[in-house]
Amino acid sequence: MDTKFLLVTLMLFALSVTSPGCNRSNDVAGGSGLLEADEVIVSAEATGRVESIRFGEGSQVEEGDTLLIIDPSRLELELESALAGQRVAQAGLQTADLQLEKARESERFAGAERDRIASLVKSGTATQKRLDQLEHEYAMAELGQRTSRANISAIEAELTKIEADMNRIRRQIQDCYPVAPMKGTVTEKLVEKGELLAPGKPIAKISRLDTLWVKVYLPTADFAGIKVGDKATVDTEAGGKQYGGEVVWTSEEAEFTPKNVQTRKSRTNLVYAAKVRVANSDGHLKIGMPVFVTIEK
């Protein structure tokens, strides 16, 4: 009887000791995952041969830095040709403006002379033939004005097209100097000097290594109460330093795990995803490194 009493006493003592830990476990959730980085693959937008490369694997780049130069000489020649065509069209426009001015003056003079002769015809001091001739000259002057206006419109349209062509060529020349779309580290160099590029050909992969992220999958019980902004602790599986993190995204719906196994048992394994971002201040964290994440609810 004393033995049973002692056993009950020990069990109650054990429960009293472990209960604070159990309450604490309800305030945290944990899961494993692999570190990943925000990455972008820069691709060529122009066709041509690589003249020079201004980066290497491991290079630090800033947003807007020129990564390489694609030979722009052919495009520069096209731009010079377009500029020459623009100058020719502008000279033609000046000539057309002078022709319009001449046609207006001819119309003005022919109209005044026609009106003067018409009054003389009424008084019998001028012939009808002379009046008819002036009517014809006046009509021709009007036609000359319309022709000049049409010519001006055609030249202006040509100038608009030339300007559009020049803007297109300038953009193509700009594409010969591809730039980094974001600050980061070049983790893959995908092109060599002298290589002939085509639009869409990958040039480099740039990764943000100063801040990494990990996605962990949690069962429903652990996921409950987790929200964006919650603090987290990231531990490498090798042990050592801990890194502070923050929940930046949580899934809106559950998913099955593993995804590629559709058995009756797996359909009951519902999990929710949470994305934790962690600052890689010392550069020790690497892409693909396995870590364990503890999230404080």
Can you describe what's shown?
The protein has helices at 2-25, 73-123, 128-174, 220-223, and strands at 28-43, 48-53, 60-61, 68-70, 184-189, 196-197, 202-219, 231-236, 242-250, 255-256, 270-279, 290-296. It is α+β, with helices and mostly antiparallel strands and 297 residues long. It has 2 domains: 28-69 and 186-296, Efflux pump adaptor protein, beta barrel domain (Elongation Factor Tu (Ef-tu), domain 3, Beta Barrel); 73-173. It has a 6-stranded antiparallel beta barrel with strand order 1-7-11-9-8-12. Strands 4-2-6 form a 3-stranded antiparallel sheet, with no helix packed on it. The protein is elongated and about 120 Å long.
Helix content: 40-55%
- Supply the number of structural domains: 2
Largest sheet descriptor = 6 strands, antiparallel, barrel
**Strand adjacency order, main sheet:** 1-7-11-9-8-12
What fraction of residues sit in β-strands? 25-35%
Helix and strand succession?
Answer: HEEEEHHEEEHEEEEE
Number of strands: 12
Structural class: alpha+beta
| Rough outline | elongated
| Total count of helical runs of at least 4 residues | 4
Provide the residue-averaged pLDDT: 86
Ends distance? 45 Å
Return residue spans where pLDDT drops below 50 for at least 5 consecutive residues: 1-24, 260-267
| Oligomer type | single chain
Annotated CATH homologous superfamily of the largest domain: Efflux pump adaptor protein, beta barrel domain
Q: Identify the CATH class of the largest domain.
A: Mainly Beta
**What is Rg?**
40 Å
